[in-house]
Amino acid sequence: MRRAVTPRARRTAAAALACLTVVTLAGCVRLPESGPVVETESEGTADEPPAIFIDPKPPEPGEQPDEIVNDFLEAMTATPLSTNVARQYLTRDANAEWNPEARTITYARASQPRGTDLLTVELSEASLLDGRGTFRGPLPPDQQVLEFRMAIENGEWRIAEAPDALVVPESWFEQRFRQVSLYFFDPSAQIMVPEPVFVQRGEPSTTALTEALLRGPGPELDGISRSFIPPGLDFDLSVPVSEEGVADIALRGYSGQMTPEASELMVTQLAWTLRQEPDIEAIRVSIGGQQVTSDSGQSLFDVDARSEYDPTGLDSSHLFYGLDNGLLVSGQPETLTPVEGPMGVGALGARSFAVNLDGTTVAAVSAAGGAVLESSVAGPEQRIQEVVSAAERLLRPAWDFADRLWLVDARDDGAAVLFLGGRGPREVDVPRVSNRRVTMFLVSRDGSRLVAVVRGRSGDQLMVSRLRRNDQGAIVSATRARRISWEGEGALQIRDIAWTSPTSIAVLHRVASQISEVRTISVDGSPSGADDLLTQLSGPVRSLAGSPVPGEGLYAVTGAVLDDLSRGDTGDVAFDPSIRQLAYVG
Known about the structure:
By secondary structure, the chain is mainly beta. Helix content is about 10%, strand content about 35%. Helix 5 packs across helix 6.
């Protein structure tokens, strides 16, 4: 099967990177207010090309209000990042009050300024990122007209009041920023929950990531993620990195006493977040001048340690699983064999299945779609147990790290989202997913996200909800699902979805009778970036097989070939066409 890799439209890539940048500028990267941008210590770098140098001009004598506003907006695109020139367009009082780090606004187009003493600029296709660097989606319509109050100071027009935001065009962001994650804990402190943010490409980001982590997950993530970094710390810090790859994190502003358990969890958050910088091997942490040490007295912490909190699941199975003439099989794609458990011995006519993360238990949906059967993957003496009955049309199930089984019953009157964890099935209301026509769904292994495909009159919609838990790990509620869309999507016919990382998924959708498209999308809804996959496949494509674990491939399942989308045209694998629903665990 031939695959044609489709280049992205320039505006799409720019938009993605714009959003990325937005985040970083507003939250993960401090904006210098004067002087050149100079790093005085090594912080770890990404091996990426630098952005084009942009040196905006300062105000000129006699400029009119519309020229001042236009030049002010242009000055915010200074590269390296700096607000020094932009601030020269403000009055003295406005300069003292203006806070571009509060949020970032990106736009595709901006109108010419209109007015005299109060000028307005209307933005088109604008997006918003918060002060922590998190993509927040489209800018609300009532905020897309920016106001600039003008005043004369020292005989020249200046801006007396400006929006507290970095306002920049999408194109300026192209090839400047990349997506990374801040690592928090789930409410029960059993597993890491990554939250996507963006940092500048080709620049040290150790300090930026640390600052963003100190700000915490924010109130909107209550019941979803929590931080063990103490409150009240000074955000204005610098994190140097030695030649040996040791990041020295000196925290200030907290006078309380941390328990050894809380200190360990804090160090774990910092280690998981900073391990994304390739130059960092270890971290050293102090609070108020006092060194944080382990139980054994060690003050140096390896960033690759603490795998027990891995958001993809500790010791999760790396095998593939599938159905071969009704039997559950496992192994590598070219050597799948029946499992030793009951479902590998007798064909039960299952229509779909899911294997838990450690590969010990399988849940299968009955042929009629009304029941769920559960048994051991290994051990033929184990019996098969019916754990759900009297459903209408159950979709392919999913497991999370807590051995919680997730189900969606696609009822005629609207879908019901269910889970099983120690007791019988319980329903959780997921606004904009429950009671809708759901065709497929995923749950992240850390149990914090539910992704669903909802079918409507104008095509399929991709929806993402966050799952709330209490400090004992029990499911409490779900957030209102947010639609994830992309440029030029049209009326979607989504055939399958699969995880590609803890914070991104692949979407397979049909664009023509014999052409399908696969693209990767961030769960935060930010536009696609230069690192994302976008490819077209010719011929019939049955499904996707993907995993959030780094290094585990993303495959397109065709008749007799697995197309390895992770490795390009050299990655095709021969495959038995009789096998259905090839999948990883989860």
